[in-house]
Amino acid sequence: MELLALRLEEWLPVALLVLARVAGFLAAAPLIGTRMVPRRVRAGLAALLTWVLVPLAPPADVRAAEGALLAAAAVETALGFAMGFALQLVFAALVYGGQALGLSMGLGFASMVDPQNGVQVPVVSQFYVVAGVLLFLALGGHLLLVLLLAESLRAVPPGAAALGPEALGRLVEWGAALFAHGLLVVLPAVTAILIVNLAFGVVTRAAPQLNIFAVGFPVTILVGFAVLAITLPQLLPRFEALLLDAAALVRALTGGG
């Protein structure tokens, strides 16, 4: 009985710290951390993942830090949230690219609610987000989430988590780089629309009596959708590269890469 109590005393703080990291990760992770997933489901999934991942965590001396257990749990939550946020920014890049394309096509006014974040986004952004979710599941992104959690526990034992200035700086740099990645996703379509607008500008100078608004908007939207359909297969390698870069950043945050 005393042995069982001793084992429970050693295991419970570790489990609480693992739960804090998993809960922070799921709060910001793609798909799971969105409004589409109820909080009860996320809480149950966090408990399930904790039960699975605790045996994988290396032994950690957390008994000496019992008085600072809440502080250690807060740091674990912050680390998990940073890991999930790095992956969530991949979808933010798709939203930004869709916004740039929608404004170029003249569809910036057409918006709908994004079920992931509960905000209004252009329909083109919503199209890219839905395509990104399907690609995320097809590429095994849901399994990647569990793998990154397991690797983080091996690299940074529970109770030893820390987010230094260097890690936070890399996270900020990653967020800034996603603006460029978002534009690269829609660069062919935006370039084609720019060429069409330049052509209409030349036509307007040659024939001022032409109603450019009646002709230009439909043609711009049609060209935008046509180029979007043509370049859609290129979304897979771009999204896969973004996802792998985000996974590498998560490993770097936990000292595993």
General description of the model:
With 257 residues, the chain is mainly alpha-helical. It has one domain. It contains eight helices and two strands, in the order H-H-H-E-E-H-H-H-H-H. A two-stranded antiparallel sheet has the order 1-2. Strand 1 (111-114) and strand 2 form a beta hairpin. Helix 5 packs parallel to helix 8 (235-253). It is elongated and about 85 Å long. The two termini are 42 Å apart.
What class would the helix/strand composition place it in? mainly alpha
Number of strands: 2
Poorly predicted regions = 1-6
Q: Give, in order, the helices and strands.
A: HHHEEHHHHH
Lay out the secondary structure.
Elements lengths: L1 H27 L10 H15 L15 H37 L5 E4 L4 E4 H16 L2 H15 L9 H42 L5 H20 L3 H19 L4
Characteristic key phrases:
257 residues, mainly alpha
Can you describe this structure in just a few lines?
The protein is mainly α.
